[in-house]
Amino acid sequence: MTGGSELERHDYDVIVIGAGGAGLRAAIEAHEQGARTAVVCKSLLGKAHTVMAEGGIAAAMGNVYPEDSWKVHFRDTMRGGKMLNHWRMAQLHAQEAPDRVRELEDWGALFDRTPAGLISQRDFGGHRYARLAHVGDRTGLELIRTLQQRTVALGIEVFMECTVTRLLSAPDGELCGAFGYRRDSGSFFVLQAPAVVLATGGIGRSYAVTSNSWEYTGDGHSLALLAGATLVNMEFVQFHPTGMVWPPSVRGILVTESVRGDGGVLKNAAGERFMFDYIPDFFRSETAETEAEADRWYTDKTSNRRPPELLPRDEVARAITSEVKAGRGSPHGGVFLDIASRRDADYIKKRLPSMYHQFAELAEVDITADAMEVGPTCHYVMGGVEVDPETAASLVPGLYAAGEVAGGMHGSNRLGGNSLSDLLVFGRRAGTAAAQYARSHDATPVPDAALREARDAALEPFSRGGGENPYAVQHELQETMNALVGIIRTAAEVEQALEQIAALRVRVRALSVQGPLTYNPGWHLALDLPHLLRVSECIARAALQRQESRGGHTRDDFPGPRQEWAGLNLICAQDGDRVAVTRQALPVMPPELAELFQESA
Amino acid sequence: MSYEARLRVWRGDADGGDLQDFTVTVHEGEVVLDILHRLQATQTPDLALRWNCKAGKCGSCSAEINGRPRLLCLTRMGTFAPDEVITVTPLRTFPVVRDLVTDVSFNYEKASEIRPLQPRARDADGNHRMQQKDVERSQEFRKCIECFLCQDVCHVIRDHEDNKAAFAGPRLFIRAAELAMHPLDTRTDRVELVQEHGVGLCNITKCCTEVCPEGIRITDNAIIAMKERVVDRRFVPTTWLGSAIRRRRRSDPS
């Protein structure tokens, strides 16, 4: 097709786009259901963003606290999301997570153990009981490696370093496959299949300060919109409270919440544990009032309440931002995270080995002797493809979404540890449903015209000389989103961001690329940028509409949550060239679950 | 604090290439990957390199810096003198795709030959029970981030392409050791399997251990441990007799 070479074509029942936790879990399940399955991923297998998850997998196994149950986990998840979560997703997630963790052991995962030999569970923000199955602070690596090795053992086809640029539809609108290019050679391929699972992760590369890798360009969100699916909750972006802030080159790299779960505390420049000043009414009855009570909680959870450092992430991120704004920050614009003065060196090295190395290697800080400097970093998008909770199906028949690219599960704010469990629970459900769909739907042939058009569009940046540099455009978008649609938002700033996004969209049409087709990152970025702009527009438009502050969305001009927004989701859909946002009522929780929230907190 | 660094980067593809000189601005605290990204954004938009996490957790940005296998994201510019020329080249053991990107499919092919865990049944309540001290041996090997620096530095394959068919390399030896020491595994032939993967060719120079960014004691805890098991197995008289007979039969010219 290019240079006279043939277009590479393959037929499958199910195509999974993305090879992180959700994608691999979906592929394993689809394969086990008998579907001919292929995985497509932008990096090498095993390098997906899941590898960076540190703390653990939240699952109410009750190994450490037998009083834990799916109902408590469900309640924590809904309250953490400020009740905006899809209740059925949160319920399925809490019910199924323990089994999803246990099966990982049969595939080789080796979690840390309790004295009784069971899977150990650690404390995390917003979780009432110690609940996170973990391996030191490298749980994501264990998860990805386990799923990777299972995928390989089952002989599932993996297209490594391949980017999907389009979902393909037949003239009658039926989904019929995916078109993309091989990053190493620049050659094009088409995968024909009746069912496609999106598992592409998030959108963090829209922001200048982020813990996310280059892959997080919102491709899946954007492909879903273009295929006719809808996105929900896009105004909710999670800024993880603790990213590294110094030196500049590591700004945004994640510092795991486990530091706080294992006893670390946040302090301002005056040495005060400022989180006690930021306990919201919503969580007051379950949060410690004094430092002494908070410290006792680590060893006795029944008669003491949780330290405020372990409030949900949105609360902690806002508190840090306020301290810095008030001039009580650390020398490099963050606050101090101190575990050195609270736990001995051996304990820290044993529980937090990768944090110890990260600070030693990248910042020349010994975390067993000195405090870390930390500040908020763009970490996760709660918003994503609107899906059916049971099947992970989008509104487009045959198109499924699981993991970070799907929306609804986490409401307005995700609890730490709930991402890895989300990947497993809904990855598996998406795999089952996609395989089932493929059994009753034959692949529709891909029309040649669509292939020609997809190829021409991908090659277009090469045909333009002297235009815009893709790196410069990406940089401007990241600065815009960081400054104007960041942690604290106002109508005026978001409107300004929307104007700038519109201007950047014009510039993206003028991008020009030099060099060969083989492994050309400038070209790859040029093709990612339209996706980044589309998801940025979704975030900004939804953020402008929601006139309240809730979870990961804080409006300086509308402080606090408002009753009229408590039952409303915002839905994004593609409308010609732009994104349209509509309001939609939340699904109503059945009475037996609603009761869980009537009891005293 | 900023200065101009002199960088020499290998650029080219499978048909050949050469070292090219660049001058790039460096700020405080930066790592080599930052400098290459700045080069990409300002001078060479098509410079091919791999990266993901930028925090030493994913093992994507492996290359050779001044001839030494390193992760680009963990190599601080501060470790070099400001006037030192820093040379960045692709991993030598694998075929070049373009610039700093090599074809590492060798490692994935070898990984697919590893026989997966064959776990014992779960306890009646659906759980597996293992003691922390028993999981720790295999946990050390599961820290591996698959940067393949150990594969790159290994003498057996670095300059001997013909050894690749019979030799899986240190990364896969720790995988084999992980499974052999895995508390749940029920296979009894792990020792034979690691021999099939060519552990006998390793002459214990410990280069792999030295370059491991995770500090895994590859040689002592995996390779030597597996070699000892091979020896133990040979000198159990019945095993020795059995394998001696099998060997003779296999080499029988008829």
Short description:
Chain A has helices spanning 21-32, 70-80, 87-106, 139-154, 219-227, 258-261, 281-284, 291-297, 313-325, 345-351, 353-362, 418-440, 448-463, 470-484, 491-508, 521-545, 591-594; strands at residues 8-11, 14-17, 37-40, 57-58, 121-122, 132-133, 157-159, 162-169, 175-182, 188-192, 195-198, 231-232, 237-244, 265-267, 335-338, 372-381, 384-385, 399-401, 488-489, 554-555, 568-575, 578-585. By secondary structure, chain A is of the alpha/beta class. Chain B is of the alpha+beta class and 254 residues long.
Span of the ends, CA to CA of chain A: 63 Å
Oligomerization state: heterodimer
The largest beta-sheet of chain B arranges its strands as 2-1-5-3-4
- Fraction of residues of chain A in helices? 25-40%
> Using DSSP, what is the number of strands of chain A?
22
Number of E-type strands of chain B:
7
Q: Uncertain segments of chain B of ≥5 residues (pLDDT<50)? A: 247-254
Kindly estimate the percentage of residues of chain B that lie in beta strands according to DSSP.
15-25%
- Greatest interface: A-B, 65 and 59 residues
Helix content percent band of chain B: 25-40%
- Whole-number radius of gyration of chain A? 23 Å
What is the ordering of alpha helices and beta strands of chain B? EEHEEEEEHHHHHHHHH
What's the layout of helices and strands?
The complex is a heterodimer of chains A (601) and B (254).
Chain A: E1 8-11, E2 14-17, H1 21-32, E3 37-40, E4 57-58, H2 70-80, H3 87-106, E5 121-122, E6 132-133, H4 139-154, E7 157-159, E8 162-169, E9 175-182, E10 188-192, E11 195-198, H5 219-227, E12 231-232, E13 237-244, H6 258-261, E14 265-267, H7 281-284, H8 291-297, H9 313-325, E15 335-338, H10 345-351, H11 353-362, E16 372-381, E17 384-385, E18 399-401, H12 418-440, H13 448-463, H14 470-484, E19 488-489, H15 491-508, H16 521-545, E20 554-555, E21 568-575, E22 578-585, H17 591-594
Chain B: E1 3-13, E2 16-26, H1 32-42, E3 62-65, E4 68-71, E5 85-89, E6 96-98, E7 101-102, H2 105-112, H3 132-142, H4 149-153, H5 155-158, H6 170-180, H7 190-196, H8 207-211, H9 218-235, H10 237-251
Parallel strand pairs in B: 1-5
Antiparallel strand pairs in B: 1-2, 3-4, 3-5, 6-7
Helix pairs in contact in B: 3-6, 6-7, 6-9, 7-9
